[in-house]
Amino acid sequence: MPRLASRGVILVYETASEALILKDPEPAREYEAGNDWWQNLGNSVSSTPNIADVEAIWRRFESQGIVSPGQSLDFTKAWISRFDIAPENQLYVTGQARGKTIALLPLKRVRRFGVDVLTWFAGSHVGCNAPLIDREMFAKLSVLERINVWQQMQRGLFGADLVYLHGVPVFEGEDYFAQLGRFVSQDYLYRAVFDNWQECAAKQHTRSRRKHDRQQGAKLAAMGKVEFVELSGKDAGLDQALETMFKQKAARFKQWGVENPFAEQKVREFYGDLIKGDNELKGKLHVLRLDGQIIAVRYNLAHQKTMFSLISSMSEREELKPGSPGKQNVFNSIKHAFNANYTAYDMGAGYSDEKRHWCNKIIPLRTHYVPLSAKGESVTRLHRTKSLAQKAIKDNDRLFSWFKYVRGFVFRGL
Fold first, then answer.
1. Pairing of β 162-169 and β 115-119
2. One Pfam family name from the record (predicted)?
3. Which residues touch 232 (CB under 8 Å, ≥6 apart)?
4. Residue 194 phi, psi dihedral angles, 5° rounding
5. What pLDDT shows up at residue 400?
6. CATH code for position 137
7. 10 Å Cβ neighbour count for 333?
8. What pLDDT does residue 384 have?
9. Any residues with CB less than 8 A from the CB of 347 and at least 6 apart, and which?
10. What sections of 64-117 are H helices per DSSP?
């Protein structure tokens, strides 16, 4: 329900659907009365712990394009296999409208601090994630129909206190998830979307940027033979490149004073499984070498016309810094992707100079909450407050710099 200000009549709605129904009661009454046109839509929901039960519909949705590797069936299967997720901790909820299955929520069940949570399988290992939907059908639904779809699907969510959906994108003209629970603004997703490299270079590779890249490239070339290669499948040197990438990331996380998300052996093995697997999500490792030594790596997963860049690393060797191996590798990686007929290069969530330079699409991300119990309701309110505070800190350069300093100080135990 909306919160009322102590003076005046200012309503603050928790959800978009709540705002619609309470601000305009006539459509709500029509919706609740169940007119003939609504009754004949064929709305229903089903839940299963067996991924095989939803494989056909998952493949159909995936064939329409995905916004994240987390929406890939092969990605999810590899995650389940490597982390031994039991069937009782998996839940797949499908929603129907107008007699057709139009949405799928694939979730895992975890327990955190005494709270049972349903959430994405890969968590923060992907830049964003979202329910899989039939986009053509969703575009035809009214707002009230979408409300009904998500409310029906909530009835299929069980065995948890809370559904926590991190990193849900808000695409322009396609805000199909606004009626899914409550949400709070989180971050931004960065993408370069162009028909080819020439268009990307013309719009993003400015004169000053070209000058910097040439200068840094020349400095790197003066140190030895520079080589950019793409590795995948069973290519020679793939295992060495993966190992080097994770070592470089570990060194960088230690320097930043943050926890290493790749520290667990199973996590590193999962990424190895995925890039070597023969599936619809194609693994592409972009490697920059200097005299045969790996100095920068980008771990990419490609699906249809989109390349998702999940991990980037570079050497911490001081003498290499004038040549900026990380920037040289991202330049070569993006150029290679667009020359290979990809039309989107996804650089993930979170701001960086490289994302600002290369990305022409900045997509808002939200965290959605669906409380399923009184405990889940309490956790939702606490976590939303925390998320709002974190975003306020990130949006303030001085506060964020101070926060990173304190975080590193605590992490290193200085």
1. parallel
2. Acetyltransf_6
3. 238, 275, 282, 283, 284, 285
4. -145, 160
5. 56
6. 3.40.630
7. 27
8. 79
9. 127, 190, 191, 192, 309, 354, 355, 358, 359
10. 73-82
User: Are 54 and 144 members of one domain?
Assistant: yes
Q: For residue 267, what are its two tokens?
A: 């996590």
- DSSP per-residue letters across 307-364: EEEEEEEE---GGGGGG-HHHHHHHHHHHHHHHTT--EEEEEES--HHHHHH-SEEEE
The Cα–Cα gap between 215 and 210 comes to: 9
pLDDT in tens, 315-336: 999 999 999 999 999 999 999 9
pLDDT digits (tens, 9 = 90+) for 252-291: 999 888 899 999 999 999 999 999 988 889 999 999 999 9
Alpha carbon separation from 214 to 113, 137, 197, 203, 224 (Å, rounded): 51, 48, 17, 18, 16
**Are residues 174 and 69 part of one domain?**
yes
Q: Is residue 210, in this structure, part of any structural domain at all?
A: yes
Q: How many residues does the chain have?
A: 414
- Between CA 330 and CA 346 the distance in angstroms is 12
Do the domain assignments include residue 3?
Answer: no
Distance from CA of residue 50 to its chain's centroid? 24
Domain containing 288 — which CATH number?
A: 3.40.630.30
Cα–Cα distance, 378 to 393 (Å, whole number): 23
pTM: 0.85
- 3-state DSSP call for residue 110? strand
pLDDT surpasses 90 at 188: yes
What pLDDT, on a 0 to 100 scale, did the predictor assign at position 361? 97
Measured N-to-C along each axis, helices 265-276 and 238-256 cross at an angle, to the nearest 10 degrees, of 140
List, for residues 93-129, the tens digit of each pLDDT value: 999 999 899 999 999 999 988 999 999 999 889 989 9
